[in-house]
Every structure is written in structure tokens, then in C-alpha cells.
């Protein structure tokens, strides 16, 4: 999405789980593309229209990953969920953040931890966030690793 529309300088701008729809074959589609909310109370609106909205998409994607991994609904733009997950991880209780249903279904805890690390990089406000291309590469490498391990375990 960002790769195709970056030259047009149009980020999604309002990425959240309720804007992700699925076709009958479970192919995801994004709604409300380019409909960015405007905060009229912001005394310092940004003049950097090419990078800041794209960074907000990366942050929002991280929040969506947290929502999927924890099974918790997002409120207040995800800041509460982000703070909760960060505090749990700081206490080294990482396994406690995951949705118990994922574990019961047999999801790989190792892969869930890697996705959690990706999400934390996306939402970290103290460092430069990855680009969406970097996030995609991290997730793709995880998927490729899973496919290799499934192929090697087949008789």
C-alpha cells in the first residue's frame, strides 16, 4: 500500500482494525484510505505531510498487531494497550500479554514473541520507527522461516 502510493504522498492516515475488511477468500482490504483525522486543537500542525502520516500508519499497524496478539480491544487510539503491553514486557512477563486463545490453538510462542517485538518497534516513541517496508520484511522473513520449518518437518 505504501509502496504503491508513496509517490502520491497519500498515507492511509486512519489505520485501525475496524478499517480492515475481508473478501470471501479472506483477502484483506483496507477502507477509509487517505481519510486522515484532523485535530483542530493541535497548536503545532505538522508541515511534513510526506513522512509524519506514514509514521502514524506504522504506529497504527503496531497497535493492530498488539490487538491481534493480546485479544484486547483498542480504546483511546491504542495508547492504553500500548502502555499496558510495554509495562508487562518490562517486567519480563511477556507471555502474559498474549491472548490465551492463541496459545490454546497452538500458535507458536516463539513467533508470537517475534511479532510482539515488531509491534513494539512500531509503537516505540523514543526511537525512530521502522518504515512500513521494514515491517513488511520482518513479517515476511518470519513467514518464510515458518514455511521452511514446515517443509523440513514433513516426512
Short synopsis of the structure:
This protein is mainly α. The protein is built from six helices and two strands. The radius of gyration is 17 Å and the shape is globular.
Walk me through what this model shows.
With 155 residues, this protein is mostly helical. A two-stranded antiparallel sheet has the order 1-2. A hairpin with a 5-residue loop joins β1 and β2. The chain has helices spanning 2-5, 52-70, 79-90, 100-104, 109-123, 132-153, and strands at residues 20-22, 28-30. Helix content is 50%, strand content 4%. The protein is globular, with a radius of gyration of 17 Å. It contains 6 helices and 2 strands; from the N terminus they run αββααααα. Residues 43-51 have low confidence and may be disordered. α2 runs antiparallel to α5 (109-123). The N and C termini lie far apart (38 Å).
Q: Helix and strand string, N-terminal first?
A: HEEHHHHH
- The span between the termini is 38 Å
> Roughly what percent helix?
40-55%
* Biggest pleated sheet: 2 strands, antiparallel
Overall pLDDT level: 78
Shape: globular
Q: What is the alpha-carbon Rg in Å?
A: 17 Å
Oligomeric nature of the chains: single chain
Strand percentage lies at under 5%
**Runs with pLDDT <50, length 5+?**
43-51
Judged by helices, strands and strand pairing, the structural class is mainly alpha
Number of E-type strands: 2
Order of strands, widest sheet: 1-2
Tally of contiguous helical segments: 6
Amino acid at each position: 500500500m505504501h509502496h504503491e502510493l508513496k509517490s502520491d504522498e497519500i498515507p492511509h492516515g486512519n489505520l485501525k482494525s475496524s478499517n480492515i475488511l475481508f473478501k470471501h477468500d479472506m483477502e484483506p482490504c483496507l477502507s477509509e484510505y487517505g481519510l486522515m483525522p484532523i485535530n483542530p486543537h493541535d497548536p503545532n500542525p505538522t508541515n511534513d505531510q510526506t513522512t509524519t502520516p506514514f509514521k502514524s500508519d506504522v504506529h497504527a499497524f503496531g497497535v493492530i498487531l498488539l490487538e491481534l496478539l493480546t485479544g484486547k480491544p483498542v480504546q483511546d487510539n491504542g495508547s492504553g494497550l500500548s502502555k499496558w503491553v510495554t509495562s508487562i514486557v518490562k517486567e519480563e512477563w511477556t507471555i502474559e500479554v498474549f491472548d490465551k486463545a492463541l496459545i490454546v490453538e497452538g500458535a507458536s510462542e516463539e513467533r508470537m514473541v517475534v511479532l510482539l517485538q515488531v509491534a513494539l518497534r512500531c509503537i516505540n516513541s523514543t526511537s525512530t520507527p521502522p518504515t512500513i517496508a521494514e515491517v513488511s520484511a520482518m513479517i515476511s522473513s518470519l513467514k518464510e522461516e515458518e514455511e521452511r520449518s514446515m517443509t523440513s518437518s514433513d516426512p
